[in-house]
Amino acid sequence: MSGIPEEKALKCVICKNGETEPGTTSILLERDKTTLVIKNVPAEVCQNCGEGYVDEDTTERLLQMAEEATKLGVQVDIRQYIAA
User: Fold this and answer.
1) Burial status of residue 23 (CB atoms within 10 A of its CB: 0-12, 13-18, 19 or more)
2) Domain range summary for the chain, segments of one domain joined by +
3) Residue 73: which residues within 8 A CB-CB, separation 6 or more?
4) Other Cβ atoms within 10 Å of 8 Cβ, number
5) Does the pTM of the predicted model rise above 0.85?
């Protein structure tokens, strides 16, 4: 066993039945007239319903990406997640 602590699975708050496991999800963000879809976002994903939960650092990066797209006047865009 490595020195990295194992994260415990979370109980899904949406379906109330599944537990999460590491994976990826797609996120839809809308701000003003901008719609942004970000694919392959690292998340804890419910094994039962597929709901994705992202951590604080990832959320911050997603919001930065949305802010940049809005400032550029993007109306609709689909992007791959790239950590900062």
Assistant:
1) middle
2) 23-42+55-80
3) 34
4) 8
5) no
Parallel, antiparallel or unpaired: strands 76-80 and 34-46? parallel
CA angle, 49 then 6 then 20, to 5°: 5
Six-digit token string for 59: 């959320």
Query: In the structure encoding, which two tokens stand for residue 37, read together?
Result: 């879809």
The whole-angstrom separation of Cα 58 and Cα 41 is 8
Residue 62, C-beta contacts closer than 8 angstroms, at least 6 positions apart: 27, 29, 38, 41, 54, 81
- Per residue in 2-32, pLDDT (tens digit) is 444 455 778 999 999 999 999 999 999 998 8
Indicate the burial class of 52 (C-beta count within 10 angstroms; 0-12, 13-18, 19 or more): middle
Q: Which of 40, 48, 41 is nearest to 12 (CA)?
A: 48
